[in-house]
Amino acid sequence: MSTPVQLVPPPIAAEPPAPKHPFAFIFHFAFKVAAMVFYLLCETFNKNQFVLNFVVCIVLLAMDFWTVKNVTGRLLVGLRWWNEGNSETGNAWRFESLAEGQRVINPYESRWFWIVLVANPALWVLCSLSALLGLDWGYLLIPITGVVLGGSNLAGYFKCSKDAKKQLQSMTANMATSAMTSAMTGRLQAAIARV
């Protein structure tokens, strides 16, 4: 007699966790999408209005740059970067990351932060190539600005991420060293107490 085969339904994919910072999550996308859409459609709606189109696109790109650099990076991945210019010492990159105890990062938000951060300059490079091949010299300035600002954020967060990893490794090494030192000190004190 054969045993009946039970059909097991496929597992249901788990829904991504709800964003912990929904406004930051939305604005991480909003300014990028607004700048890209306005750039792609600006000649459709505002023909012969180059100055207006240029100004609106640059303002949207600047708002995106500032938002990512100062708000969404800190909230979504716990990182922040800035560059200090000084006539005596030159430029210096500064990095800030939340301590491990304070850092509670939603993996869904973090993944999308990095995907969008990498994709943004890549899409502006494609727009630059399109404007270059189309010999649209005036509108070439907008995607070049998008590449520069998006690339700056990407480079800053990449360096900041590496710095945060170094800080975590050094903190772990310091904790291990202090734990070993305290254990050895305890054993040494116990040995001396026996003598």
Short characterization:
It is found in: Golgi apparatus membrane; Membrane. By secondary structure, this protein is mostly helical. It is built from 4 helices and 2 strands.
Number of structural domains: 1
What Rg is obtained from the alpha carbons, in whole angstroms? 25 Å
Give the number of helices: 4
Please outline the major beta sheet: 2 strands, antiparallel
Name the strands of the widest sheet in spatial order: 1-2
Beta-sheet strand percentage? 5-15%
Kindly report how far apart the N and C termini lie. Answer: 77 Å
H/E element string? HHEEHH
Average pLDDT confidence is 76
Tally of strands: 2
Helix/strand structural class: mainly alpha
Q: Unreliable stretches, pLDDT < 50, 5 or more residues?
A: none
Function: Golgi membrane protein involved in vesicular trafficking.
Transmembrane segments: 23-41, 112-133, 140-158
GO biological process, one term: protein secretion
Membrane topology: Multi-pass membrane protein
